[in-house]
Amino acid sequence: MLRTIFQQARQSITIIDAYADGMVFQLLAPHAQARLRIEILCSRYATAVAAEAKRFVAQFPTITIEVRSSIREFHDRFVIVDQQDCVHIGASIRDAGSTAFMISKVEDEANRLVLIASMNQAWANATVVP
User: Which of 61, 78, 90, 121 could disulfide-link 16, Cβ–Cβ 3.0 to 4.6 Å?
Assistant: First the structure.
């Protein structure tokens, strides 16, 4: 399901997951031929994710990835596709395939707009991970 969500992106994917790890890149790899901007807002494993992002970009040069660290402004996990479609993920992406969890699209327009605005603010305030 997450791969299908990533596949829908035409311009960008924003991942908000405090515990994101290298699993993100396994899910992105099948779709890495497109020109995409990937933003990952995480905290716990941010340094490791940034290092993995550099290796990923070396292998897939049409992708740009920026990793930022934030002190958990979000409890839940979200994926935002092309700054328009928002998906709520019930567990960390690092657990994808190992445990059951819900994935649901944020359908309500007001909630979607607030989520995107909150994400943009959190992204602007987060620390860039080199």
Answer: 78
Q: What is the largest CA-CA distance in the chain?
A: 39
**% of the chain surpassing 90 pLDDT:** 69
For the whole prediction, is pTM greater than 0.90?
Answer: yes
For residues 22 and 51, what is the distance between their CA atoms, to the nearest angstrom? 9
Q: What architecture is domain 2-128?
A: 2-Layer Sandwich (3.30)
pLDDT for residue 58 is more than 90: yes
First vs last C-alpha separation in the chain: 30
Give dist(CA 96, CA 106) in Å, integer.
20
pLDDT higher at 16 or 1: 16
Q: What share of the chain is helix, strand, coil (3-state, %, to 5)?
A: 40, 25, 35
**DSSP category for residue 17:** -
Dihedral of the CA atoms 14, 6, 76, 100 (nearest 10)? -160
How far apart CA 43 and CA 114 sit, in angstroms, is: 22
Strand 103-105 with 36-42, pairing: unpaired
